[in-house]
Specification:
- The protein has 173 residues and is of the alpha+beta class.
- It has five helices and seven strands; from the N terminus they run ααββββββααβα.
- The strands form two sheets. A four-stranded antiparallel β-sheet has the order 6-5-4-7.
- α1 runs antiparallel to α2.
- The protein is globular, with a radius of gyration of 20 Å.
- It starts with a helix and ends with a helix.
- The relative contact order is 0.13.
- The mean pLDDT is 88.
Length: 173
């Protein structure tokens, strides 16, 4: 009954809309409540809704069209990539470097033991990497989103280094 294009857009915006609806209900409850305790609870609900909407917006910006080769799967902190020519596995706990390469079309992951894994940004399931990347210590997700949206991509861009790697590359002067 609903066109497939419209359904895809509704699914794409669902987290943002859900967060905004929760925030609106929280604001409405805050204005209707007569007791300050219930107003505070309603304001907390509104804040939670706004937070969910912002996270949904970031996830939506991270998502790319699934026109890249291969399939990405994240299961119990293990990143798996099954590609037509290459593939591999890396534990998210072992990640020490994250790069955006090939003019913004490929994630390059490096583990502690030197294992390297290249994952196309547009691979099916690559949007599940958002949660993995967001869990990395001291990562700035906004800079990753900005790099993905940049009109002119550089050949390779380091997005994150493990704190132990940053200390090793720090300059004295």
């Amino acid at each position: 009954m609903i066109r497939p294009e419209l359904r895809a857009e509704l699914v794409r915006w669902s987290e943002v809309v859900t967060g905004l609806v929760i925030a609106a209900l929280g604001l409405w409850a805050a204005f209707v409540a007569r007791d300050s305790f219930f107003q505070l609870v309603a304001a907390l609900i509104a804040g939670t809704g706004l937070t969910l909407a912002v996270i949904g917006w970031r996830r939506m910006r991270f998502h790319r069209a699934t026109d890249g080769p291969g399939i990405v799967q994240v299961l119990e902190a293990q990143i798996s990539y099954f590609g037509p020519e290459t593939g591999g596995f890396i534990s998210a706990r072992d990640l020490v470097e994250l790069h955006l390469t090939e003019h913004g079309t490929c994630w390059h992951l490096i583990a502690q033991d030197g294992t390297r894994l290249d994952i196309p940004v547009g691979a099916e399931g690559a949007d599940t990497l958002f949660d993995v990347f967001a869990s990395l210590p001291d990562i700035h997700m906004q800079s990753i989103l900005d790099a993905l949206d940049a009109p002119e991509q550089v050949l390779a861009r380091p997005m994150w280094l493990h704190p132990s790697r940053r200390a090793a590359t720090r300059r004295l002067h």
